[in-house]
C-alpha cells in the first residue's frame, strides 16, 4: 500500500496528515508562523512517520496566491500575499528537497474542493465551487471535476461587488479595501461589527449588509461559473450558521428573475455547508499526493 502525506498550509494553522484518499491515519496541527519554521515542522512530522519506509508522495494544499502551473519555473512559489514573510517562499521546492519524493501542490481551497467533490457535498457535480470564509476568503473552482487553472488560479476573495446602498464600511483588505475578503473575512467582520462576530446576536440588524454582500458573491458565482453546488466552509461560516440562509434568501431578488431555475428552494439545495468539515483541506492534500505518485509512476 502506498504511503502518502498531505500538508494543508493555511494562513493561521497548518495541518499535516498521513493516510490515503478518503482516510486520515495520523494528524498534527500547529500555528503557521514563518516559512522556515512552518515547513520545517511539517517535514519533521512526515519524517517521524517513516518507520519502515519513507512516504511515496506528498500533496500540499496551500494558501496563496501561489504559483500552481507545473510548467512554470517557480511552480510552488508563494507570490505577493497578505501573509507577512511568505512572499517568495519556495513552498513546494523546500518540501521536495527535504523529503526526496514526488510533491504536488495546489491551493488550499482547490484541495478542499477536490475532497468535497470526491467524498463530500460535491459528489456527482461536474462544476462546483468551494468557498472558505475565515481569516481570509478564498474560492476553489472545479470544472469537469478538475481544478480551474489559468494565468494563476481563481482569486474569488478579491473581486469587488455591488455594495448595499447604506453601507459605508471601507473594507479591511490591505490590497483592495472593500473587495469581498475585505468585507466578509473574520478580521473584516470584527472591524465592521465593532466586536468579535460571536458577540453579535443573529437577529442584530448589523448582519443585514453582511448577508447582502455574501448574497452578491453567491449570485455572481451562479452567473459566471454556473455551478451545480457551492460549498461554504471556514470558521466564519461554521460559527455563524444564520448567514447562509440569510444570503440565500436574498439571491432570487439579486438575480431579478433572470434565471427561472434559481428559486429559493433550488438555491438552498445548491449552497450548502461541507460534509467533510475541517477534514476537507487535509483530504484534498492527500488526493494531491496520490496524483503526484501516479504521475511519478507514469513518468518513470
Provide a short characterization of the protein structure:
The protein is an alpha/beta fold.
Report on the architecture of this protein.
This protein has about 300 residues and is of the alpha/beta class. It has 2 domains: about 5-110 and about 280-300, ATPase, nucleotide binding domain (Nucleotidyltransferase, domain 5), CATH 3.30.420.40; about 125-275, ATPase, nucleotide binding domain (Nucleotidyltransferase, domain 5), CATH 3.30.420. Helices cover about 35% and strands about 20% of the residues. It is built from 10 helices and 10 strands. It has helices spanning about 35-50, 90-100, 110-120, 180-185, 185-195, 205-225, 235-240, 245-255, 265-270, 280-300, and strands at about 5-10, 15-20, 25-30, 55-60, 105, 125-135, 135-145, 145, 230-235, 270. A 5-stranded mixed beta sheet has the order 3-2-1-4-5. Strands 8-7-6-9-10 form a 5-stranded mixed beta sheet. Helix 3 (about 110-120) crosses helix 10 (about 280-300). The longest helix is centred in the C-terminal third of the chain and has 20 residues, at about 280-300. It starts with a strand and ends with a helix. Keywords: Kinase, Magnesium, Metal-binding, Transferase, Zinc. Its EC number is 2.7.1.4. It catalyses: D-fructose + ATP = D-fructose 6-phosphate + ADP + H(+). This is fructokinase.
